[in-house]
Design a protein that fits this description.
Pfam families: YchF-GTPase_C (PF06071)
CATH class of the largest domain: Mainly Alpha
Keywords: ATP-binding, Cytoplasm, Hydrolase, Magnesium, Metal-binding, Nucleotide-binding
Domain TGS: 179-211
CATH architecture of the largest domain: Orthogonal Bundle
GO molecular function: ATP binding; ATP hydrolysis activity; GTP binding; metal ion binding
Distance between the termini: 41 Å
Strand order of the largest sheet: 1-2
Domain OBG-type G: 1-158
Radius of gyration: 22 Å
Helix content: 40-55%
Order of helices and strands: HHHEHHEHHHEEH
Number of helices: 9
Number of domains: 3
Shape: flat
Largest sheet: 2 strands, parallel
Number of strands: 4
Amino acid sequence: AFDDDDIVHVEGSVDPVRDIEIIHDELRLKDEELIAPILDKLEKVAVRGNDKKLKPEYDIMCKIKSWVVDEKKHIRFHPDWNDKEIEVLNKHLLLTSKPMVYLVNLSEKDYIRKKNKWLIKIKEWVDKNDPGAVLIPFSGALELKLQEMTDEEKEKYLTEVKTTSALTKIIKTGYAALQLEYFFTAGSDEVRAWTIRKGTKAPQAAGKIHT
């Protein structure tokens, strides 16, 4: 969400709202591609093969197809998927069923001064089209600069320009959106972080280490 003569945009101009809409369309179209072979396979077995066990899944996939393909909407925007439908959705991991976190890349100058001409427009679009979704401004240029500094240099620079890195917030928000958490193990020569799904019990978490 910034102009830079050294960066050429694929669409020829900077318009983050347009880009968000393009990404939304591309994700939905990808789900269309994923749904088609799933339905074909289920139809062969459940309808033509008369497999009564798979008939409920076939019916649910037909409903999902209607929402994504005919209504042209993201799965997560459906107001009332029931438990059985959610089970099928979780099985097939369709893209538009996942929560969305909007990361807005600003110039270092705009990020530090907390001003950008696009932010309000992006926020308005998200509030209207994806209410409740998280929007996080960050500066890729700043984060790259910080990566090349020592911890001491980083702390000094951030204090001077009166700002903070957005990386921690981005990571924590991503984990929360995906219902993930992490735990640490410490050995004689290293400390490691392991990612697990929220609600995972200790034996399963331990199994993560050994696989």
